[in-house]
Amino acid sequence: MRLNRLLSVFILMLGFCCHIAQSNAQTVDDATLRPLVQALAGDNFENTTKAISDLVKTGDPRVSKILDALSAGDLYVAKADKTVFLGKRDGSDYAATDALTGAKLDPVPRSAAEKIKVNNRLRRDIAAAIGGLTLMSDNIAERRSAAEAILKTRDPESIPLLDQAIAVEKDAGVKALMQQAKAAAVLNSDAADDVKIAAITEVSAGNSRAALGLLTPLENVQGPVGEAAKAAIDSINTKLAFWNAIQNVVYGLSLGSVLLLAAIGLAITFGVMGVINMAHGEMVMIGAYTTFVVQQIIRTSAPGLFDYSLLIALPAAFLVSGGIGVVIERGIIRFLYGRPLETLLATWGISLVLQQAIRSWFGASNVQVGNPSWMAGSFDLGLLTLTWSRLWIIVFALSVFAILQLVLKKTMLGLRMRAVTQNRRMASSMGIRTPWVDALTFGLGSGIAGIAGVALSQIDNVSPNLGQGYIIDSFMVVVFGGVGNLWGTLVGAMSLGIANKFLEPFAGAVLGKIVVLVLIILFIQKRPRGLFALKGRAIEA
Amino acid sequence: MFNLPAKFIGTLAAAAMGASLAMSPASAADDTIKVGILHSLSGTMAISETTLKDTMLFLIDEQNKKGGVLGKKLEAVVVDPASDWPLFAEKARQLIEQDKVAAVFGCWTSSSRKSVLPVFEELNSMLFYPVQYEGEESSRNVFYTGAAPNQQAIPAVDYLAKEEGVERWVLAGTDYVYPQTTNKILKAYLNAKGVKDEDIMINYTPFGQSDWQTIVSDIKKFGSTGKKTAVVSTINGDANVPFYKELANQGIKAEDIPVVAFSVGEEELAGLDTKPLVGHLAAWNYFQSVDADANAEFIKEWHAYTKNDKRVTNDPMEATYIGFNMWVKAVEAAGTTDSNAVIDSIVGTSVPNLSGGYATMMPNHHITKPVLIGEVQDDGQFDIVYQTPGLVVGDEWSDYLPGSKDLISDWRKPMSCGNFNIVSGKCGGVTN
Amino acid sequence: MITQWFFTHVDRRGGIAIALLVAIALLVPLSNLLLPQTSPLHIPTYLVSLIGKYLTYALLAVALDLVWGFCGILSLGHGAFFALGGYAMGMYLMRQIGPRGVYADPVLPDFMVFLNWKELPWFWHGFDNFWFAALMVVLVPGALAFGFGWLAFRSRVTGVYLSIITQALTYALLLAFFRNDMGFGGNNGLTDFKDILGFNIQAGTTRSMLFAATALFLALAVFVSSFIIRSKLGKVLVGVRDAESRMRFLGYRVDRYKLFVWTISAMMAGIAGALYVPQVGIINPSEFEPANSIEAVIWVAVGGRGTIIGPIIGAVLVNFGKTYFTAAFPEIWLFALGALFIIVTLFLPKGILGLYGSWRTKLADRAARKKDSAPPPVAAENVHLPEPQAAE
């Protein structure tokens, strides 16, 4: 372990030496380099590590490219003559190029070559080594990753090189990062107390969590350094506590949005129409599978459109789930109006059939739904890490809610829906075709469940069981919010989400969920018709 | 139709009994040997178990092509216990008592195995159980061809400590018995290695957990103290996809905080885009990427059988393969399918595994296995970065749990005991 | 005397059902134990346990029908009471294992030993005594139901709200029992039982006795249900089902009536669970799955809600179907089961017994029509009790 660390420090150091050497444009001839490259194909990681350090020692500019390839797993060794080459998969062959010269070689059959193994530690070492080679690179991204690599290793030996680099660095961001790296290295060295205290100030100005990691070992040091570290830690902790609360709210909203998405379709089929729709979860699942099918088609016929796959899947999922909803309503549910509890049985049967249908069709395993690039990754907001997918889901859930409100309040269809649900007979005598309104309302609810499935496919696994995971939560949200009230569903989802996230750190995920359920039960005793109860005779069951 | 309710009920009951008696497929001729397949084809576990049912059908098909066993063809009896644990017990009883199967291959979760165990012991039949589990069990009638904790968890932790220099550990699992036991064992093991309690974080989540934001961000915090941190994940199947998605999205790279999983294989990764996960680890006894002729052959035939060259293979499939071949070999050695004879003849049986070596059935009814550690690749496969130099014998009673460290199991005569206490020198409980 | 008393409280159907159940309780064990295996009338042990399991489900269904069919309380959480009764019995059976567990610990069950528990948690004490456990079988579900009902009925939580919070109840219990820290064996539950009241639990005689006990308890449940339904109390309950507000305005303390029948029903479900566990050999948290409770509702609906023997028929039939289909069509049986539920709700709104009822009415109609060609009497539907109607 210690050996590894020493080794990476060594590599790093060499990197800098070489870098300096490199400015003299020193290259090594192929004959010296080739056996070193050949040595990368050692039979264990230790040999490979040694080969890497030998390579870096040469200071040849080609080394960083070769190591990059190794790190990416593109270096192969032919089984027969043990030559190392750069390979790219091409059918059943590897398209091979010479690792040193880049000259094209004959393709190698896949069975005749073996990938040179790299593990996480090697990749880390390589990054550090390349980092040393590229601290003065022309490319800003390379300089940034070089500084990051040093920030991780915190090697005191790199201080002079960092000083050099800081002196010429133009970009403010990279410069700050280099200064952070230097401060971290200083804290790790046996510099004088005042230098260290300055470094503590520097460090605590940066990323607080990383700083905490750097400072904690110093906390128990006697003297001014320890005191400074302690003070810095205290202030960071206060900051972190504040951000923790914010994190709980934001994560709670994000969980709430997922609940809202899952429940909002149910708020229509169950809340507005009174159908205890146990097949709601399956509508969500069908939406997710529609996304899968859309992505599948895009992958095979128009890979360029992949980033738009979700946008294409949205209307598709709405139509598929909505269409199935209309069929179910016309075929089964319409015979059951006025017998709401029996809709429970029929829809339970439907849910079994739909699950099995999907299982027979797509298989029982998960299917892969990819994230488009704009859904992948995360960004930092203060000390909070929020992933793009979660952010988009919050935005998406709220938009769906807003659009649904618009449809219900501002369109003719919405007006009719409300009329029918409030007083079927009256609406019918006013000339509204209630059967069609019923079918469309159920279709709308199912369609919205379908587009919820598109969103959920981004964060959850897409399998025939997908719907089962959400059905209970959805019912809780609708009932908690108040049946028949969309605003109740919104507030209900968000408050359950936030309550869950505030309880989770104290009680753990399992107990937190139990507490939330008990709270719902108790809450219903207080308000037997949910958060936003409808008033009037219509609600008397 | 019916005149009286009494008659109505009577007819119904009679019909029920009659039909269930006639339930077994047209009474088997004596020239076949029946093999029971007890894997959930619906419900929550269908996602994992369906593949094993297909594997069994494939293996039986292959065996029949080779002429069957003892000159008789094998006949598969498939039932669906529907991820419902008591139904497992009912179906096991049905397979043994009604269909008179010679052996049963099945179960995935420990609950399902616990549920059928008394049935197999009572009716003295054989169950081959192909999934890694928490250990702490050894039955005369059950053959554990999956990994015990020492064949998976402990070598993985050793690898991380040695090769990656990990000093700080997150033990994250789903809140059920397998993760709890494995984590207890691991914690005792790490403590014995000098890891302090403050460097171990244990976290449990409910089944099917889908919101991992808080936990992943906690892991990130725990890992940012400067000491090298790794996550040992015993998170159960369904919850893994959202966990890894959150991990990828929050930008936790394998170089920073590697995650080593014991329940994530090729099948689970099939539902994921693995590009952001490259370098995260899994510990198994088999990977599809194993470079061995037996494996290449197996994959080729599997693809031909399923008519789908994208179907992946995984560790429980290999365990099924080993268990099935061991049974065939033991039956041929015994010359009969009678349970007592086969149970006696199977101990010591060696069959090729798929990683180019041999698996042997040990007297404790667990098998020898190599332990492989693989890193996730961008194509959903694993790149094997470590393999134990020799084979590891499954340890049914963990040495790291106070209750079981004195127990051993040996089903050979004359000991024939699943829980022999080496301190008291007595066979602990009365089993059969 | 006694027969007369009996028949004032039980209708003809109920009487036949009770007689039949008592007969089954006697005949099935006799056939299993006394007849040679070759006899065509011999019932194998396998079937004894299987039918025994169906009958415990039937008992649960009768309990559920008492609240749903006769009082209009749709519980989506009755599985919780069933499971609690089962756990109480399971804890007794666990304690009976004694030093025969794999770790040979005289007191602690196996799962506690390997998870390093040092002593028996307080709530496990007393369960080594059968009668204490038997008391808990009714007391724990009863107390939970009483507490839950007392809160819910007093605050007039009704309809779907009540259904959903009963679901929340069983879901919360599911999660709680899953936790290993709770001390109930986590998801593996309680299993590997050895004996009950000193008899080997796997022996044929024990199985037959358990079967007989189940059939007799079911007969008792039918009697108790009939007794309640035919009493004045029962009339009030039906009144509550059909017009709760009206009953309240008439001066009945609706909440007390509901609470009474709700608690009785939970206790019956607890007994069902207690009989279920020794026959299937395991109890684990999956019994708390909300889906299980919904399935119980379906048995009642299939058999005929608001009848006493309908639920028995429904439970036996659906579970028999499950047994049959999962073996005969393991890949596609969910289609069959799903279709069954849809068809029953669409075409047999009153369940199988309802079908029988309307068929008899039709027959009577035809006979009447034959006698004189008077206009046909009122439609069959009007003969039945009106369904409780939710808001439209």
UniProtKB/TrEMBL annotation, chain A:
Q: Which organism is it from?
A: Phyllobacterium trifolii
Q: What is this protein called?
A: Urea transport system permease protein
What Gene Ontology molecular-function terms does this entry list?
A: transmembrane transporter activity
User: Which family, according to the similarity comment?
Assistant: Belongs to the binding-protein-dependent transport system permease family. LivHM subfamily.
Q: Name one Pfam family in it.
A: BPD_transp_2
- Which terms under GO biological process does the entry name? amino acid transport
Is Transmembrane one of the keywords?
yes
* Keyword Membrane attached: yes
Q: Where is the signal peptide?
A: 1-21
UniProtKB/TrEMBL annotation, chain B:
The organism's taxonomic lineage, starting at the top: Bacteria, Pseudomonadati, Pseudomonadota, Alphaproteobacteria, Hyphomicrobiales
Q: Which organism is it from?
A: Phyllobacterium bourgognense
Q: What is this protein called?
A: Amino acid/amide ABC transporter substrate-binding protein (HAAT family)
Q: Show the NCBIfam families listed in the entry.
A: urea_ABC_UrtA
Q: Point out the signal peptide segment.
A: 1-28
Source organism's superkingdom? Bacteria
User: Which PANTHER family did the record assign?
Assistant: ALIPHATIC AMIDASE EXPRESSION-REGULATING PROTEIN (PTHR47628:SF1), PTHR47628
Which InterPro entries does the record cross-reference, listed alphabetically?
A: ABC_urea-bd_UrtA, Peripla_BP_I
CDD domains in the cross-refs: PBP1_FmdD-like (cd06355)
Q: Which residues cross the membrane?
A: none
The alphabetical list of record keywords is: Signal
Pfam families with a match to the protein in the record: Peripla_BP_5
Q: Which SUPFAM superfamilies match?
A: Periplasmic binding protein-like I
Give the Gene3D superfamilies listed for this entry: 3.40.50.2300
Automatic annotation (TrEMBL), chain C:
Segments spanning the bilayer are 15-35, 55-84, 130-153, 160-178, 209-229, 257-277, 297-320, 332-356
| One cellular component term from this protein's GO annotations in UniProt | plasma membrane
Which molecular-function annotations from GO does this UniProt entry contain? branched-chain amino acid transmembrane transporter activity
Q: Where in the cell is it found?
A: Cell membrane
Pfam families, alphabetically?
Answer: BPD_transp_2 (PF02653)
Query: Which keywords appear in this protein's UniProt record, sorted alphabetically?
Result: Cell membrane, Membrane, Transmembrane, Transmembrane helix
Region annotation Disordered: where it falls in the sequence: 368-392
Q: What is the protein's membrane topology class?
A: Multi-pass membrane protein
Entry-linked PANTHER family: HIGH-AFFINITY BRANCHED-CHAIN AMINO ACID TRANSPORT SYSTEM PERMEASE (PTHR30482), SLR1201 PROTEIN (PTHR30482:SF4)
What is the name attached to this protein's record?
Urea transport system permease protein
Q: Give the originating organism.
A: Phyllobacterium trifolii
